[in-house]
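It is worth pausing here to work through a concrete case rather than discussing structure prediction in the abstract. The textbook approach is simple: state the sequence, then state the predicted structure, then interpret. We follow exactly that order.
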Amino acid sequence: MSEEAEIGIIGGTGVYDPDILEEVREVKVYTPYGPTSDLVTLGTYKGRKIAFIPRHGKGHRIPPHLINYRANIWALKSLGVKRIIAPSAIGSLREHIEPGDIVIPDQFIDRTKSRPSTFYEGQRICHISTADPFCPELRKIAAESAKKLGFKVHESGTYVCIEGPRFSTRAESKMFRAWGADIIGMTLVPECVLAREAEICYVTLATVTDYDVWADKPVSGAEVIETLLKNIGKVKSILLDMIPTIPAERTCLCKDALKEALY
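Step two, the predicted structure:
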């Protein structure tokens, strides 16, 4: 397939419609891993070619543990995508990270259980480095855009990714805090790991929807959606500001991630 996009957006909870794009068309990408979460929307924004996938499908019909992460990343790679911006909804494990804040994590802790997390399951072995799992170039651009727009942003943080679809117990939430995690969600892993295996730069724009249950207040799905909808405009504003400033050439190490990873 010819290169039809350079920047991918994987829309998280609340971000299902790529209404920022022009010259829009939808394509079905067939992958060795089965169907993507939905059709891929191709379009442009200020001259940049964009591919958009709603992570949970349109209408939020796919739970976190059943998302076909490999198909989504493979599809974006096949379309020519070199960078991925991935909005997501998360809970806070820290008092100072408040609902409505934006977090640009720099580390993760993986607590998923049953998700295929590599493209390499035979023939060759890949031990990909995730010492620094997010693209430093994209993280810097995202932080600068958020600050310029006047949003409260945390420029680093550790994201603990749980299997879901249930929320944590109080004991688990308190344990994650003791481990040093700052935010909690259900979709980062293996998405960002697969992006690294595909040598695609990846950053997540994490929107805080609530305090996790350590705060002695049970988390409800309705509360998450209500807070997220109030703040979805922030994510779109950051995307609109970021995209034109992303340089055409990559200077980060993401593009060479496989050089010393294949055996």
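Step three, interpretation. The first strand starts at residue 7 and ends at 11. The chain has five helices and eleven strands.
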